[in-house]
């Protein structure tokens, strides 16, 4: 039998278009063809299991071969095969009508790059790399004649009878001269590793099975041990540190989704890695760009998601609006929050031990997802400078009595750097106040969120004001200095400091407090932080010098001494006291430091 025909399509040649627009992704031809082979294999298995096919199944491996001399790539399977009629029906008509529609739409549409994916051109992706494609196939059905189909990428095809003993299909690609890279074995191996690593049927290349047909996400959690999860993580990300914990996703309704998400060990903000989650559809790798499929903050997790319900061949904007994608988003978020709740409740010690690794993730989630916030507010932890952890509720109970100001506002104090802000942390501790450590990049946003969410609560950095003003109580502080003395003292300091960005004020601090306290107002610092990270339209503020408040402790003996000192000595002592304040905050450097050291030596010398 020989038959020649024209493929029913109005456009002369669609392949140049396919080729052009799938350009960046040419390698997916292999994924499409191997998946087809796997599908055909699974179909014969099913037919056999229900007794529709009574013959031997034989070795069901899918085999990929590259022959550089013959310039061919062959994908062979022992699946259900096709009769000549079926080729005409499934390959010629269906695919070509899809392609014809594609061309029509392509002519109209603006977003051409996004169009191609909307059509299941599966088999025809072969023409991205081949200038002639052949199918040699024998159906599982008895008494059918094997067929040999050839097409050169035009709309003409030929079908002749073939000789083929075994059931199944060989797809032979005669590789085009501009696609010779695909004749390199290493290239093919890389592509197979990327897309076919977990296909459900064994795939052989160069005598080796390249895939794991039963990845653990397809199994029931009850069948799996901790080791299995860790081993699989290692398989996905060789050389990575072991994950902290994981979630096995498994849902049939209202959508179908399986997968395993791992919480990686995150050492610091800079190490955050997105795009580590791999997306599969029935064990076929699709992409590791899951941006529109999982919520942004969950992209910090690692692992796999497998769902035939995610419409993979559609454009991004469509994906975002898709209702099953939204449901999937909600489901995953809930699962992750539930898992964290479970660990928190069952094993608080483990939860605390891992907090450094997961806090960025939890905070990011709370900031970006209201539903996640609602669950996480019960397990998010605050750590104080002593290394103790508290939930929001626990911390409120701890601080409320002592840290509520005269207006009933609970003031939580925090430090971003225990070493640099040590003097202030100590001053707070001396008052019996507790100080939180909020020192990661995300914490400035987290602080803002807490203030919005928690009632009557303010957060202040411990060095943003003098201790009395950080949390203003109703008690009146007496000053031992008269108003004129205060004025004099202020002038002396202003002259000694001689810097417009230092606002000098004389305040009645406790005699035990430092003689001079330099603070950077909370408001000012937040504005500057905001402008640095590009938010709030405050760009100009980033370039402004820091403006500090300098509190001169009216009740400190040094300041009383200054007023009594000889004229030429007044400024010297004031400058020395100011420099000591700078020094305690790591702010003294350059010529000011040199002058300070010299002055100090002179002072000791005089004693
Ligand atoms: N190796 C094969 N063995 C048997 N039938 C095959 C084989 N390859 C393709 N077919 C048949 O040709 C049809 C068209 O394949 P094609 O890859 O174009 O689309 P598809 O697999 O149906 O969808 P998709 O766009 O998701 O790949 C298949 O549905 C199948 O019936």
Automatic annotation (TrEMBL):
- UniProt domain Histidine kinase/HSP90-like ATPase: residue ranges: 25-165
SMART domains to which the protein is assigned, alphabetical: HATPase_c (SM00387)
Q: In its keyword annotation, does this UniProt entry include DNA damage?
A: no
* Stored Pfam families: HATPase_c_3, HSP90
Record key words, sorted: ATP-binding, Chaperone, Nucleotide-binding
- The answer to whether the entry has keyword Kinase is no
Query: How far does the signal peptide extend, from start to end residue?
Result: none
| Family named by the database record | Belongs to the heat shock protein 90 family.
Would you tell me the protein name for this molecule? Molecular chaperone HtpG
State the encoding gene: htpG
């Amino acid at each position: 039998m020989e038959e020649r025909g024209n493929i029913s399509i109005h456009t002369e040649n669609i392949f140049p278009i396919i080729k052009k627009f799938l350009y960046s992704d040419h390698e997916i031809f292999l994924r499409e063809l191997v998946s087809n082979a796997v599908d055909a294999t699974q179909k014969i298995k099913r037919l056999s299991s229900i007794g529709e096919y009574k013959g031997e199944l034989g070795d069901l491996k899918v085999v990929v071969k590259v022959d550089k001399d013959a310039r061919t790539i062959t994908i062979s399977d022992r699946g259900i095969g096709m009769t000549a009629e079926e080729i005409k029906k499934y390959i010629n008509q269906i695919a070509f009508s899809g392609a014809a529609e594609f061309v029509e739409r392509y002519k109209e549409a603006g977003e051409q790059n996004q169009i191609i994916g909307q059509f299941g051109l599966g088999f025809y992706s072969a023409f991205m790399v081949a200038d002639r494609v052949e199918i040699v196939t024998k159906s599982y059905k008895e008494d059918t004649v094997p067929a040999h189909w050839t097409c050169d990428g035009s709309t003409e095809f030929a079908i002749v009878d073939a000789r083929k003993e075994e059931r199944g299909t060989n797809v032979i690609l005669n590789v085009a001269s501009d696609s010779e890279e695909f004749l390199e074995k290493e290239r093919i191996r890389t592509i197979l590793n990327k897309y076919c690593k977990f296909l459900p049927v064994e795939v052989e290349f160069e005598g080796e099975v390249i895939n794991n047909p039963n990845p653990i996400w397809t199994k029931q959690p009850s069948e799996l041990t901790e080791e299995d999860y860790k081993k699989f993580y290692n398989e996905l990300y060789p050389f990575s540190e072991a994950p902290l914990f994981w979630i096995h996703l498994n849902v049939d309704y209202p959508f179908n989704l399986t997968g395993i998400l791992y919480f990686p060990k995150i050492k610091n903000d800079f190490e955050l890695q997105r795009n580590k989650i791999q997306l599969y559809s029935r064990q076929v790798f699709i992409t590791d760009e899951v941006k529109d499929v999982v919520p942004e903050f969950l992209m910090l997790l690692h692992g796999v998601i497998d769902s035939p319900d995610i419409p993979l061949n559609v454009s991004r904007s469509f994906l975002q609006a898709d209702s099953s994608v939204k449901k999937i988003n909600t489901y995953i978020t809930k699962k992750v929050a539930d898992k964290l709740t479970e660990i928190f409740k069952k094993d608080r010690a483990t939860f605390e031990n891992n907090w450094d690794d997961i806090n960025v993730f939890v905070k990011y989630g709370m900031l970006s997802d209201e539903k996640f916030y609602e669950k996480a507010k019960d397990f998010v932890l605050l750590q104080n400078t002593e290394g103790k952890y508290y939930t929001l509720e626990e911390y409120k109970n701890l601080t409320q009595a002592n840290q509520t100001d005269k207006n009933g506002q609970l003031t939580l104090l925090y430090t971003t750097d225990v070493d640099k802000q040590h003097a202030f942390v100590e001053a707070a501790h001396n008052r019996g106040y507790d100080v939180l450590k909020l020192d990661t990049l995300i914490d400035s946003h987290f602080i803002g969120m807490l203030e919005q969410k928690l009632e009557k609560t303010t957060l202040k950095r411990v060095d943003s004001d003098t201790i009395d003003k950080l949390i203003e109580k109703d008690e009146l502080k007496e000053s031992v200095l008269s108003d004129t003395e205060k004025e004099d003292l202020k002038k002396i300091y202003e002259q000694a400091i001689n810097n417009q960005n230092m606002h000098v004020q004389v305040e009645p601090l406790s005699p035990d407090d430092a003689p001079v306290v330099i603070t950077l107002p909370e408001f000012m610092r937040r504005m500057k932080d905001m402008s640095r990270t590009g938010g709030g339209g405050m760009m100009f503020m980033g370039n402004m010098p820091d403006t500090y408040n300098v509190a001169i402790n009216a009740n400190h003996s040094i300041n009383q001494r200054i007023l009594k000192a000889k004229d030429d000595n007044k400024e010297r002592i004031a400058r020395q006291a100011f420099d000591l304040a700078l020094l305690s905050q790591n702010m003294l450097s350059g010529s000011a430091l040199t002058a300070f050291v010299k002055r100090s030596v002179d002072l000791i010398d005089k004693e």
